[in-house]
């Protein structure tokens, strides 16, 4: 059983949040390297929700980003942090 996501910050719609969590869940089941997980999530979001998505996956990182309104989500699944956002 996969750990439940823990949302830390978001300005995303419930529908987009669910889509991101579904893509992320599948990516973490299929891949183990953080770089691969981030790549899969980014490619899926670009295809399904338009280009210019950025995805950071890791156990420890700092960030300060600019994003489109309504397109930012920061959450954890187990020990992995996920920062997902779209730029114009």
What does this protein look like?
The chain is α+β, with helices and mostly antiparallel strands and 88 residues long. It has a single domain, classed as Protein Inhibitor Of Neuronal Nitric Oxide Synthase, CATH 3.30.740.10. 38% of the residues lie in helices and 28% in strands. A four-stranded antiparallel β-sheet has the order 1-3-4-2, covered by helices on one side. Strand 3 and strand 4 (80-86) form a beta hairpin. Helix 1 (14-30) packs antiparallel against helix 2 (34-49). The radius of gyration is 12 Å and the shape is globular. The mean pLDDT is 96.
The total count of helices amounts to 2
Q: Kindly give the count of domains.
A: 1
- Order of adjacent strands in the largest pleated sheet: 1-3-4-2
Straight-line distance between termini: 36 Å
Percentage beta strand: 25-35%
| SSE order | EHHEEE
Under the CATH scheme, which class? Alpha Beta
CATH homologous superfamily title: Protein Inhibitor Of Neuronal Nitric Oxide Synthase
Summing up helix and strand content along with how strands pair, one would put the structural category as alpha+beta
CATH-derived topology: Protein Inhibitor Of Neuronal Nitric Oxide Synthase
Coarse shape: globular
Low-confidence stretches: none
Radius of gyration: 12 Å
Major sheet summary line: 4 strands, antiparallel
Compute the average pLDDT: 96
Number of strands: 4
Secondary structure: helix percent: 25-40%
CATH architecture tag: 2-Layer Sandwich
